[in-house]
TrEMBL record:
Keywords: Amino-acid biosynthesis, Aminotransferase, Branched-chain amino acid biosynthesis, Pyridoxal phosphate, Transferase. It comes from the Bacteria. The keyword S-adenosyl-L-methionine does not apply. Its cofactor is pyridoxal 5'-phosphate. It holds the Pfam family Aminotran_4. It catalyses: L-leucine + 2-oxoglutarate = 4-methyl-2-oxopentanoate + L-glutamate; L-isoleucine + 2-oxoglutarate = (S)-3-methyl-2-oxopentanoate + L-glutamate; L-valine + 2-oxoglutarate = 3-methyl-2-oxobutanoate + L-glutamate. This is branched-chain-amino-acid transaminase. Its EC number is 2.6.1.42.
């Protein structure tokens, strides 16, 4: 049997973008009312990006159109077999009014890796980045300016071919939508409680855990509900029943007494750009950073002996958040000392400082979107 995987698409050069303005765009007053208290993921801007892919035509018809419902054939493959991937990133407004994003080439590259795993076509990085600029060109006013607010950008791609056979779709859509964002966790940056899921996994060996795909989230919803029943905000998944994996939407980092930071390594972890950036900032400060397998027993024993002083979670939406407590069916780890939480918050401060243009961008991580 031969499997025809989608071909690598041509570059953005030569694609002609079309913009259709939203006649019913929110008025400046309506928009400001939303931006005053955006929450997370509740409100969307006036426009969206829409690019088509077909086996014959490659990437084509890139457009910016009014935000609104998508017409899909009920047989569209995504609705049946979940051939779908996405990205998550933010646009930040700097003090001078300019609009920037953070390491977008990393998101573009990750989306290509996700595409490969889900047998979707790889979107060239230049089209990915151009799509963000095109959306900001019409919806730039939606980037809020209050401290720690941003415009969350959600690129996504799905199989839209109407066909119930199981094979990679020959018609695919790429979209970008945007949603103004306030703080992710209610009550600001407080240490979170984590539930250890031992009955469920979000991914497995050889599965799709390293791809940013909706199915991983679908499988995390029930354990997440279990976490909530136990009074926890997030759920920690294990790999092979014993190694730390991740929270399902955020990566985990353990803080050791000597300042060493350890993050779990596994083929089923989604490689976070926040985690990579935070660990780079920690290295710059002289911390030892390790990426290796970590068992749940190492965390338990380290917390008991005082070798492990805390932990934090990181991801674009929540940035960096200290973990105060890990609750499991038959044990609990409580991190009460201030050292790890202070480190997490100071790394968070430095990272957001770079993103909002308050701290020098010495790694060249920012890209301007509105120019
Ligand atoms: C997006 C995501 C993360 C965090 O990645 P960032 O690039 O830091 O936002 C972590 N885990 C999963 C499963 C994710 O989907």
């Amino acid at each position: 049997m031969t499997i025809n995987l989608p071909l690598q698409a041509p570059s953005a050069a030569g694609l002609i973008w079309q913009t259709v303005r939203n006649e019913n765009a929110k008025s400046p007053e309506e928009r400001e009312a939303v931006l005053a208290d955006p929450g997370f993921g509740n409100h969307f801007t006036d426009h969206m990006v829409d690019v088509c892919w077909s086996e014959k035509g490659g990437w084509h018809r890139p457009r910016v159109t009014p935000y609104g419902p998508i017409q899909l054939d009920p047989a569209a493959a995504v609705l049946h077999y979940a051939q779908e991937i996405f990205e998550g990133m933010k646009a930040y407004r700097h003090a001078d009014g300019s609009i920037w994003t953070f390491r977008p080439e990393q998101n573009a590259a990750r989306m290509q890796r996700s595409a490969k795993r889900l047998a979707l076509p790889e979107l060239p990085s230049d089209i990915f980045i151009e799509s963000l600029k095109k959306l900001i060109a019409v919806d730039g006013d939606w980037v809020p300016s209050a401290p720690e607010t941003s415009l969350y950008l959600r690129p996504f791609m799905f199989a839209k071919e109407a066909f119930l056979g199981v094979r990679p779709a020959k018609k695919v859509a790429f979209y970008v939508i945007a949603s103004p964002a306030g703080a992710y966790f209610h009550g600001g940056v407080q240490p979170v409680s984590i539930w250890l899921s031992t009955n469920y996994a979000r991914a497995g060996k050889g599965g799709t855990g390293a791809a940013k795909t909706g199915g991983n989230y679908a499988s995390s919803l029930l354990p997440q509900a279990e976490a909530a029943e136990h009074g926890c905000q997030q759920v920690l998944f294990l790999d092979e029943g014993k190694y730390l994996e991740e929270l399902g939407g955020m990566n985990v980092v353990l803080v050791y007494k000597d300042g060493t930071l350890v993050t779990p390594e596994s083929d089923s972890i989604l490689e976070g750009i926040t985690r990579d950036s935070v660990l780079q900032l920690a290295k710059d400060r002289g911390h030892t950073v390790e990426s290796r397998k970590v068992t749940i027993d190492e965390w338990r024993e380290g917390a008991a002996s005082g070798d492990i002083v805390g932990a934090f979670a990181c991801g674009t939406a929540a940035v960096v958040t200290p973990i105060g407590r890990l609750l499991a069916e038959d044990f609990e780890i409580v991190h009460e000392g201030d050292a790890a939480a202070e480190l997490a918050l100071s790394l968070r401060e430095e990272l957001t400082g770079i993103q909002y243009g308050r701290v020098e961008d010495r790694h060249g991580w920012l890209l301007r979107l509105d120019a």
